[in-house]
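Final report, results section. Input specification for complex C-07:
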Amino acid sequence: MTGAHGFSVSGYGPERAGWTRLFARDSLARRLDWPILFSALALSFIGAALVYSATRNRTELNQGDPYYFLFRHLLNTGIGFALMIGTVWLGHRTLRTAVPILYGISVLLVLLVLTPLGATINGAHAWIVIGGGFSLQPSEFVKITIILGMAMLLAARVDAGDKPHPDHRTVLQALGLAVVPILVVLLMPDLGSVMVMVIIVLGVLLASGASNRWIFGLIGTGALGAVAVWQLKILDEYQINRFAAFANPELDPAGVGYNTNQARIAIGSGGLFGTGLGKGSQTTGQFVPEQQTDFVFTVAGEELGFVGAGLILVLLGVVLWRACRIARETTELYGTIVAAGIIAWFAFQSFENVGMTLGIMPVAGLPLPFVSYGGSSMFAVWVAVGLLQSIRVQRPMSA
Amino acid sequence: MTNIPETGRTPRVQIRLVVIQILVLSLLGTLGGRLWYLQIRNGDEYAKEASGNHVQQVVSPAVRGSILDARGVPIADNETRLVVSASRTDLMKMKDDGDAVLTKLAAVLGMKTSDVLDKVRLCDSKTPQPCWNGSPYQPIPITDEATPKQALQIRERAEDFPGITAEPQAVRRYAAPGGANTAQVLGYLSPVTDEEITKAEHTDSPYLRSDQVGRSGLERQYDKELRGKAGVTRYEVDNLGRVIGQAESDKAQPGANVVTSIDSRVQRVAEYELNEAMKDARKEHDRNTGVNYKADSGAVVVMENATGRVVSMASNPSYDPNAWVGGISGKDYTRLTGKESNYPLLNRAIQGQSAPGSVFKVISTAAAIKAGYSFNGPYQCGASYSIGGQVFKNFESKGYGPISLGRALEVSCDTVFYSLAHEQWKKDGGIKPKKDAKDWFYRTAHQFGLGKETGIDLPNEVTGRVPDRRWKQDYWKANKDAWCKYGKKGGSYAQQIAYENCLEGNRMRAGDSVNYSIGQGDTLVTPIQMATIYGAIANGGTLYDPTVGKAIISADGRNVQEIKPRSHGRLPMSKQTRDEIDGALEGVATRGSAAWRFGGWPQDEIPMHAKTGTAEVYGKQTTSWFTTYTKEYTVVMTISQGGTGSGASAPAVRKIYNALYGVSEDGEIDRRKALLPTPQKSLPKIGKDGSIDAPKVGVYPPKDEEQATGEVQQQVAYEGPAATVPASGTATDRAARRRSARPGNPKNPKKGRRSLV
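Structure output:
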């Protein structure tokens, strides 16, 4: 809100002054990234329609109210939207000072999951039941605080102009900051989130300008870690089976491979234009499990066809494309790192989620940003949008 | 727009950001490509899979059509029985393995609890009958005779009877109207096999797993028509199988009815009289073998001359086709098909073959005319005929001096045919045939339709055999090794024969030709072939494909598809020759070899034609043949090991004519008593609701006669040879006690000299 010239546009009546001001050169509204905002909103509303289609018949879930999930999805979107506005209002720089507190809270919440307060949903002990039908998935918020925390550490000396790149010590600190919650999430075990977090760390390190050795070292460690996880049997049976089913979907079509098989049938049968919303037999017949959350993309594939499902990919593409621009255009490394972390998060989570429904990625319990039903995820991605907007809005003007 | 500010960041970071952007875009591109691949390229395939996923089919089987006789009397139809079954899978889930439920069920059904428990236990080596030897996953029938009240009790209290079902099921019934069981003509059903299901999967009449398939006789021949089309209702279901909508449904189309030309009353007479004739034959002493005739099997065919339609066809021994209903027991199966049985499943009218004996002489007569001999001759009928020291006797008659061919037929003079056949054999080059050998006697037999199927609409008809030069060559090739090994010069009679066969079994010897001319030797014919030939002589020369099926009428009676008579050729003889032979055959009945059996016959009103035959069978007693015709009908009867044609078969044949025309024993015609003085022309009427207006079938023989003969009629109708099967018992006993047969063709008879088996 630095616009000094905002009031001088002629030709507008006094009663339009508010609008004028809002859209004046360098005003907040002018600086907002509208494509991201519209895309995110569109994705959320498409998601609402898909969630509705997937849940209206699931009486065992929706307590007899076909609009139950639709309503809650819209409510989540609204809350998310408010969180975004709050984030923009506060500004990412203000938040920067609060990062240690936010980080601490999020890690605490994650640790809470491991206490008796935690609940297991769909095989992942990743939830805290708040009551009143609400539950929280702290790992979603940890994604944000890892980005913010690492960005804070990595950018501090660079933004201060001390160094062109973060030094090894800083990188080590930043990694340490990320490893703590990642290990906790791994213990839950919420493997999907762990994968996302590792990718986030990778994105953050890349954008921070940390030396290549760190990048390759991290990739190598990730590979070794995967082997270790496999060998040490940290994974639950169901997780191993998911990978086995991914490698060979015909292995057990009634069991492990069932999800992916049915998902692929649903999407494949959609054709170019789909069956129309609410008319997909796979969706109506509830052949795809978890269809309102992890497998929401199959509803789009079946009922909206290549056109509708493609639109979702395009909208996600718009969000990511604009985010990349934001990352490149901001002058502070802090903003760049945060944007890059969010890009890595959104990109990988979308790819993994859609990829598993298309049968090119193994099954992991990850929501599709904006589209999947789920409060924690919705809040987190909208906060991330708020961060992106804030980075764009608050970038210093030239001159 | 806004200026792009200097970022002041290092190129390293800038480059990396571009890398990230490219990575992100390629990930999205990958997803898009994969999406296109699934939805656009393979979309149809997945759409198919999806529809297979959510559509469940409920199949309601079609009711099998009935088989009706010419007047509409059902000879095979369905009855609805209430079948109570128990699902073992469900019972085993209960704590007490379902004992409580079964105890309750026993009380409702009025059965002993232990009986019910025994029925659902699985058979193994230690478990005696009763026990269940089917699949443990299939519902096990407890009873198929539940009353509606019992069924209601079970169905209304379904919660008290988990795993128990009580449902009406259509069950095949072979009603045997008036005692005519028509077993071999009807055939039987048995459950469809996996192989058949797979094979018929993509045809226009696929099978259901619950289907019964016709295995022989009419049930097999007209299986497709009788079966109808099962109804399929497709429901859309969700992943738990809950119905969420009805997609489409095809109504079941009940199978069509097959109207046959069989007249149950005549069929009953034919079966009864054949059986009587065989019983009588067993009382006769056979001078050649020194024991009574065995009369082990027999067949009779009654055919319409003008169409080739079969009015009745009986084969003895017979069996009760109801034994197959609801699955044949292993015991019954062995009794019907085992080595000890006399193969009652065989339809001897089309699957029994033997040498024809003198009934073959009409063919020889026609052949002689073809070869240029005059009908009137005269030809020397000596007491015997010798060729190079070998003497061929005049078996059935004595010497009559010079006679015409007609007279030779009448008195069945063998020697006339010996000499003609021998002359022809010599003319053709004898043992070393000329290139253009005429082979009149063999050629004519082929033209009469021998050596191949008549084309009757029943499965597995056998061809018989014309032992011509080609057959001799083939047969010798197939058997010479065995003959040469066994044969021994100067050995036993059999060894001597084998020795000769080894040397020149491929050659047509003079003796072969001579024997052949009177229907002895290697010639084999079936009763249906003979009926076709004599029917053709009667109708002026048309060889009809015999038919049993007369029309296919849809279940609602609207669609009538008549099965038209078809011919497979004409007799190779001029009208004049036909008339001459016809006259001679009438002479057989009036003054020839069968005259003694037709005393008092109203010949003026119903001109009777006949030919007797007695076929020699190596190692067995003679086969009796009797072929006859009137203006309307041909009746052919044969009895294996039954004696002479006129002796064993003629009285029974006359009784069949008596019934057809209403002729009394002393030759009076009572039109009111006639069962079928002219063939049934019209088809039975079938109502829209499937009802059939069928007349009643009376009792044969009539009550008073029955008492006179001291027989309980129903038993007689089903029984096989009395010599091997003790009479009486309940229906199930009857079915169980039956001896019986391998389905299908009999194997190649050893040495080609077996009679009717």
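The radius of gyration of chain B is 34 Å. The longest strand of chain B covers residues 74-86. This concludes the modelling results for the funded period.
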